[in-house]
Design goal:
This protein has 198 residues and is an alpha/beta fold. It has a single domain, classed as Rossmann fold, CATH 3.40.50.300. It is built from seven helices and nine strands; from the N terminus they run βαβββαββαβαβααβα. Helix 1 crosses helix 7 and helix 5 packs antiparallel against helix 6. The two termini are 22 Å apart. The relative contact order is 0.21.
Length: 198
């Protein structure tokens, strides 16, 4: 079975920037594309960044049990395809799942073999600067994200690893180190296949 890496943290903490770099630099790693009802931002591609669907279709998918987890975040629906996760992990492929804190906590309650990583900004002031610089949110949405971030940051201790994203290069290396270490855990290695056990 592959390893499911749950990556979470407040909006604007830099998860996307870190994950894009890690995806380029680490082999046998796939990104799990989530579904959302939020509007597409400039430069985002359907099927690469998210599967963009309307609320009606999303609710139908919920009714049909298609999601591993789903949540309403900042007023929009977000969900993770159960089928995609199951199929990839069964093929021994490792998966990066970038989800909001609420969704990550829901997944952590499930009986799954997973590794959870929380990515945090250096401070709330820094987070606000990043969100404003991004320029994709209205003032109302920006304030809502900052309020949500306070609650999200209060949940750090429920995750296995913490990366404070003060410098992108360092954060990328830290996440790569976590992935490498988890892949070397003896519980994940088929020891009977090693030559000295034969």
């Amino acid at each position: 079975m592959g390893i499911l890496f749950i990556i979470t943290g407040p909006s604007g903490a830099g998860k996307t920037s870190i994950l894009k770099r890690v995806m380029k630099e680490v082999e046998n790693l796939e990104f799990s594309v989530s579904y959302t009802t939020r509007p597409r931002r400039p430069g985002e591609v359907d099927g690469r960044d998210y599967f963009f669907v309307d609320e009606k279709r999303f609710k139908k998918m919920v009714e049909e049990g298609e999601f591993l987890e789903w949540a309403i975040v900042h007023g929009y629906y977000y969900g993770t395809s159960k089928k995609f996760i199951d199929e990839r992990l069964e093929k021994n492929g490792d998966l990066l799942l970038d989800i909001d804190v609420q969704g990550a906590l829901n997944v952590k309650r499930m009986d799954l073999d997973m590794v959870s990583v929380f990515i945090a900004p250096p401070s709330l002031e820094d987070l606000e600067k990043r969100l404003r610089k991004r320029g994709t949110d209205s003032e109302y949405d920006l304030k809502r994200r900052l309020e949500d971030a306070k609650w999200e940051l209060s949940k750090i201790s429920e995750f296995e690893y913490l990366i404070v994203n003060d410098f992108l290069e360092k954060s990328v290396e830290k996440l790569k180190a976590i992935i490498t270490a988890e892949r070397m855990r003896t519980k994940r290695i088929k020891l009977e296949r090693l030559p000295f056990f034969q």
